[in-house]
Amino acid sequence: MEKKKKVVVVGGGTGNFSVLTGLKKYPIDLAAIVSMSDSGGHSGKLRDELGVLPPGDVRACLVALADDEKAEIVRDLFNYRFEHGSQKGANVGNLLLTALSDILGGFDKAVKAAHQLLDLRGRVIPVSLEKAHLLAELTDGTILFGETAIDIPENSRRPPIVRVWLQPKAKTNPEAVKAIREADMIIFGPGDLYTSILPNLCTAGMFEAIKASKAILVGNVNIMTKRGETDGFEVHDFVRVLEGALPRPLTRVVYNTKRMPSPLLSKYKKEGAYPVHVEKPEKNWIGADILSTRGGLARHHSDKIAKVIMSLPGV
Predict the structure, then answer these.
(1) What is the pTM of this model?
(2) What's the burial of 165, exposed, middle or buried (CB within 10 Å: 0-12/13-18/19+)?
C-alpha cells in the first residue's frame, strides 16, 4: 500500500479554511499549523478575561476539516455565534475549546478532544502552546502592539510594515516541529501575511524545522491586498516577504489569474483592497483560475485551489 503524502498548511483560521476544505477530500495525511497570536473579537475577549490561548483560528480550521456528513450538527455547533443578548458575538466553538482546555488541563488536549468530536479529516496543530503577543515595526519606527492593532489600521495612510515578532518569544509546539520535519509539502497561506502567516514563522524552532525538512515549499498568494498590511503588493512582494522569513526559497508559487467582476472590484476598492497582480511571473510560479466570488466575497475556491496544489510535482 502506497504511503500517504504528508501535506502541512501554515497560516491562520480564516485564510486556511478554503484550502483545508478542498484538500481534505484527497487521500493525503493533512495537517494545519495555526497561529496563536489572535487578540481580536471573541478570541481576544476570552484571552483577556480568562488568560487562555486564543481559540478562534484553531476553531476555524477544526470546522474546515470536520467530516461534512458524520459530524454536521457538531460542526454547526462549533461555528454558531450568538446574535442577541448579553452573549452577542460569542462563538460556541471558542467557548467549548476554552472549557475543554480547563477540564482536560491544556489547550493541546482540548484540540485533540475536538478532533474526536468533529471526526476530522486531518489534524489541527497550534503553532505554540505559550502565550505571546504579536508586535510590528513600521517604516517610520512606530511599534504596534497586538494582532488587532496591526490588523486594523487607524487610518488609510499608515506606513508599511517592516517586520513582525512575538513578545515574549514563544517556543514552537513540538507536534508542529514534528509535522514540519516529516512533511512532503508545506503550504504557506492564503491569509493575512503579517498577522496570520508570518507569526507562525516567528516561533522559536520553526526556522530550524523548515530548514531540516525535505518538503517542497509552496506559497499560496492572496487574491486581494489588505489595507494597512499589503497595500500595493504584487505577487513578487508576497514572495519577497515570505522568503525573507524562510531558510530557503519557495519551490512553487500559486496565484490567481481570474478577472474579478466589476461590482465586486468596486466594493473592495471602498475598503482599500485591490487584486494582487503579477508583472513578470517566475518559472516556478503557477497562475490559475482559483477565484470564488460566492457570497459577494473574493476568496480562494476550495476545489480549484486543492486541484492545483495536488497537481504539483512531489504530491
Answers:
(1) 0.92
(2) middle
C-alpha angle with apex 110: 105 to 115, nearest 5 degrees? 150
C-alpha cell at 41: 473579537
Q: Can you tell me the distance from the alpha carbon of 10 to that of 267, in angstroms, rounded to the nearest whole number?
A: 29
Return the pLDDT at 314. 66
Could you tell me which residues are beta bridge partners of residue 137?
143, 163
Torsion of CA 64, 17, 300, 283, to 10 degrees: -110
Place of cell 496543530: 125
Helix intervals (H) in 40-162: 41-50, 56-65, 72-79, 92-104, 107-118, 147-151
Q: How much is the mean pLDDT over the chain?
A: 89
Angle (CA) 77 172 137, round 5°: 95
Residue 25 neighbours by CB distance under 10 Å? 15
For the chain, how many residues are written? 315
Q: How many CA atoms lie within 13 A of 135 on its CB side?
A: 12
The reported pLDDT for the residue numbered 71 is 65
Closest CA to 272 of 142, 190, 155, 193: 155
Nearest-angstrom CA–CA distance, 161 and 138: 4
3-class secondary-structure state, position 46: helix
CA–CA separation, 270 and 197 (whole Å): 25
Instruction: Name residue 220's beta-bridge partners.
Output: 254
